Each structure stands twice: as structure tokens, then as C-alpha cells.
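Module 6 notes. Inverse folding takes a fixed backbone as the condition and produces residue identities as the prediction. Think of it as a translation problem where the source language is geometry and the target language is the twenty amino acids. Below is one complete input and output pair. Work through it position by position during the lab.
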């Protein structure tokens, strides 16, 4: 039994993780707060925008505590947008490229809990003393998160991220809604920076069903009324179609492990689905949900070749409001 424990996959995984951490370059954190403040001072810089959102959120919470105006809670709930930007643009990059897993493992979970608690409390009709206590506790956690972002998360990002990565974060952040009434500002350096050039073969792509140019295939995938994401057999994000999306897909997430793009409480479910696909236990998983007042069908499907070999997973997100409108006439 002892020998089995010593050679268990868990022990091997831990050893691999420790070895992986040692491979990351060591950073100098002695002036991390100063570096964060210098970036926050740049008009339009992502850290400047996130700081202003935090200042506005702090003000909204203070005003609510003073007045208990329910209208303020609707604006406070917009912290879901602020948290989404952190979860999509900051946490995964820190964890995957720089080996800084703490924010992803801890803060991301806290974000989800705070968001869900505030949402649940706000939806309560005629909140009683217990409901108000839950709301107050959630607001206190939101204030604590503001402190953690300003004093821990942002300085860590300032030390690690390159100028080009900040430019890419700035560009990806444009895809998110504004929150707390904080207007978007232009970061001149990012606007003037050249976008990375991705070269591609212009010849036709030949498939069993026909042949198309790369331009035609791209346009076709963008025309399909679904959000399409493809993860390859190595669990790496390889493709997102273009266009507005309910579930944001930052360009920086491409070529990154798919598990790093999900909050900790969701990651086990994603791992299980992909493991089931890989081992032929399932071929698809449909998930119906309500988001932003819309009914959505999210369908995960195993992608296999003609011999049934697993090639990857495709996620399809479809707005089903058209069906409700058709059948409810």
C-alpha cells in the first residue's frame, strides 16, 4: 500500500507541478506597487480603467450603506463585468505564462461567490434581516476584493506582463460592457501599436465535401449564427469564430490550455466532459441556461475523425430566443 501511494498519479502530478514552477523566470517584486501605480497613471491603460472601476464600485457601496437605495444595487451588480475581465484577461495569463497561480486559484473563486451572493440577495423580494445580513456580508467581501486587487493582483500583473501583452489586454477589453458608468478612455500607445501579423496560405483548402479559399471558410464560420470554439486533443484553444459573443473569447486565450480559462468551480466539470469525450463515454453534452435575459443552448460535442479517433471538442453557443418567439405566437 505504501509503495502504491508513493507512485500514485497525484504524487507525480505534484512533482511535475513543482518542477514546472521552478522553470519560470524569477521576478523582482521589490517595487511592484510603484510599477502598478505608474501604469495606472497612463490614460486608457487597462490598470487605469480597472482602478477607476474599483473607485466607482467603492463609492457605490458607500452610498448604498448610507441610503439603502435599491437602485444602487443594480449598478453594484455590474461588478460581474469587472470580474469577468479579470477572469478572462488577467488570471489565466498570470497562471499559464508566469506560473503565478494564486490569483486564479483563490481570487477567481471569491469573485464568483461575491457575484452570486449579491445577485441572490438583490433578487430577494422584501428582504428580511437575514437577507440584508447576507447582502452586507457580500458587499464587505467586494470591498475586501478591491483592496486585494489594488495591493496584490495589479502589482503582480505590473511586474510580469510585457508592454505587448498590455496592448493585447487593452484591445480585448473593448469587447466587454462598461460598468459603474466608467467611460472607456483611449490609450494612445495601444491604438498606434501594430497588430501582430499572422501569415496564412492563400491556396484553397480541399475537404471531402468540396474546396474553399481561406477567406471563404473564415466568412462561412463567422456567418453561422453560433459562437464556435474549438479545443484540440491536447486541450489547447485553437479557434474562436469572430463576432459579438455572450461568452467572451479573448484573442489572448488562443494557444492556451482551455482549463485555465475557466473559474475553479467550473474547471472540474470541463475536465470531466473532455475526459468523457476522449474516452468515448459521451459524444455531446447540452446545457440550457438563462443569461442576460436570454435563453441559450450551449452544446459541447466531441470531434472525431472517420475512425472515431478523438481530435478535440467544439463548443457551440446558440441564442434560442427565436424559438420561443416562434412557438409562443
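Target side of the pair, the amino acids:
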Amino acid at each position: 500500500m505504501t509503495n502504491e501511494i508513493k507512485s500514485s498519479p497525484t504524487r507525480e502530478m505534484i512533482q511535475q507541478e513543482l518542477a514546472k514552477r521552478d522553470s519560470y523566470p524569477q521576478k523582482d517584486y521589490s517595487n511592484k506597487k510603484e510599477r502598478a501605480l505608474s501604469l495606472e497613471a497612463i490614460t486608457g491603460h487597462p490598470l487605469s480603467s480597472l482602478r477607476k472601476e474599483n473607485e466607482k464600485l467603492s463609492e457605490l457601496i458607500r452610498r448604498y450603506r448610507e441610503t439603502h437605495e435599491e437602485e444602487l444595487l443594480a449598478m453594484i451588480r455590474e461588478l460581474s463585468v469587472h470580474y469577468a475581465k479579470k477572469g478572462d484577461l488577467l488570471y489565466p495569463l498570470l497562471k499559464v505564462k508566469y506560473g503565478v497561480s494564486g490569483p486564479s486559484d483563490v481570487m477567481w473563486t471569491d469573485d464568483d461567490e461575491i457575484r452570486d451572493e449579491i445577485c441572490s440577495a438583490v433578487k430577494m423580494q422584501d428582504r428580511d434581516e437575514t437577507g440584508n445580513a447576507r447582502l452586507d456580508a457580500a458587499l464587505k467581501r467586494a470591498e475586501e476584493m478591491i483592496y486585494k486587487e489594488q495591493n496584490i493582483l495589479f502589482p503582480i500583473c505590473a511586474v510580469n506582463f510585457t508592454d505587448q501583452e498590455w496592448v493585447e489586454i487593452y484591445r480585448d477589453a473593448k469587447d466587454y460592457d462598461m460598468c459603474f458608468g466608467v467611460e472607456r478612455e483611449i490609450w494612445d500607445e495601444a491604438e498606434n501599436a501594430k497588430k501582430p501579423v499572422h501569415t496564412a496560405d492563400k491556396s484553397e483548402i480541399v475537404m471531402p465535401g468540396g474546396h474553399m479559399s481561406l477567406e471563404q471558410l473564415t466568412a462561412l464560420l463567422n456567418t453561422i449564427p453560433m459562437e464556435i470554439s474549438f479545443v484540440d486533443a491536447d486541450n489547447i484553444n485553437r479557434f474562436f469564430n469572430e463576432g459579438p459573443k455572450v461568452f467572451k473569447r479573448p484573442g489572448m486565450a488562443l494557444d492556451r490550455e482551455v482549463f485555465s480559462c475557466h473559474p475553479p468551480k467550473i474547471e472540474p466539470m470541463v475536465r470531466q466532459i473532455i475526459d468523457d469525450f476522449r474516452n468515448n463515454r459521451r459524444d455531446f453534452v447540452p446545457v440550457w441556461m438563462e443569461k442576460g435575459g436570454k435563453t441559450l443552448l450551449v452544446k459541447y460535442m466531441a470531434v472525431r475523425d472517420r475512425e472515431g479517433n478523438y481530435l478535440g471538442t467544439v463548443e457551440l453557443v446558440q441564442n434560442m430566443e427565436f424559438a420561443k418567439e416562434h412557438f409562443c405566437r
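Reference fact for the lab report: Residues 205-327 form a domain with the Beta-Lactamase fold (CATH 3.30.450.20).
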